[in-house]
Write a structure and sequence with these properties.
Layout: H1 4-15, E1 20-24, H2 27-40, E2 46-50, H3 56-70, E3 75-78, H4 88-110, E4 119-124, H5 137-159, E5 164-171, H6 185-188, H7 195-205, H8 210-222, E6 230-234, E7 238-241
Parallel strand pairs: 1-2, 3-4, 4-5, 5-6
Antiparallel strand pairs: 6-7
Length: 254
């Protein structure tokens, strides 16, 4: 939440009057961001929690701290993401496993059958979750996984009357620090020599400001009819939704 798309999300949510807990592993960025936000908004409206999302106990503890600080949980945004084809196991842990774990923790606190008041969970995927991404196969796989998981759990939430909506946002190229990873051999590994091809794709499709992704987030939060949707955001078409065929058969609630 201290940089990139997460930074824009925080700004947008605070602008709507929300109280926001930010989880980030970068302590320096976190401290700088907290100081800047305290100048703009009331200090008690934000809490920063140091957290490695791949550490199960840290993530559990972070959710607990949020409840202790604010007294409730209404919105969860699973946004942590990296591009690292060399250390691909870590990419899976951050981009997919932590999203699944964050979703289940959010449901644990928010679903009505568990004493919660309902809410909304937004998982951040990518256009690479909807199409092949040459030279980024593991990144692409994780983003496909986020979409499949979120759409599936959204059907379950509806059938079981959790009172929680779950949706996915799939941005195209966004001007965030993750784009810089394309220039680094320690991130791209065997695909490092193809960095110029990826940059050509970025130029072709266009690079967006994170603020438009935040607009999409607010749309999902405020429209309580959206559940299981996949929002696409591109430089050419702006905010729109992926169209799917009929949802597979689901039995009625037991």
């Amino acid at each position: 939440g201290a940089q990139g798309i997460g930074r824009a999300f925080v700004q947008a949510l605070l602008g709507k009057g929300a109280k926001v807990a930010l989880l980030d592993g970068n302590s320096e960025a976190r401290q700088e961001r907290k100081a800047a936000l305290d100048e703009q908004f009331e200090e008690q409206r934000t809490v920063f929690i140091q957290c490695d999302v791949t550490d199960q106990e840290q993530l559990k503890g972070a959710f607990k701290k949020v409840i202790e600080h604010f007294g409730r949980l209404d919105i969860v945004v699973n946004n942590a993401g990296v591009n690292n084809e060399k250390d691909w196991e870590s990419t899976i842990q951050i981009n997919l496993t932590s999203v699944i774990r964050g979703t289940y923790l959010g449901l644990e606190y928010m679903r009505k059958g568990n004493g919660g008041d309902g809410g909304v969970i937004i998982n951040i995927s990518s256009l690479a979750g909807l199409m092949p991404a040459a030279f980024q196969p593991v990144y692409c796989a994780t983003k496909h996984g986020v979409i499949g998981f979120t759409r599936s759990i959204a059907v379950t939430a509806n059938m079981e009357n959790y009172g929680v909506r779950l949706n996915t946002i799939c941005p195209g190229f966004v001007n965030t620090p993750i784009l810089q990873s394309i220039d680094k051999e320690e991130n791209m590994g065997q695909y490092y020599s193809y960095k110029d091809e990826i940059k050509n794709m970025m130029q072709f499709y266009g690079v967006m400001d994170p603020s438009i992704i935040a607009e999409g987030l607010i749309t999902i939060i405020e429209d309580d009819t959206l559940n299981g949707e996949v929002m696409k955001i591109t430089a050419s078409q702006g905010i729109h939704f992926q169209q799917y065929g009929q949802t597979p058969f689901t039995s009625s609630k037991r």
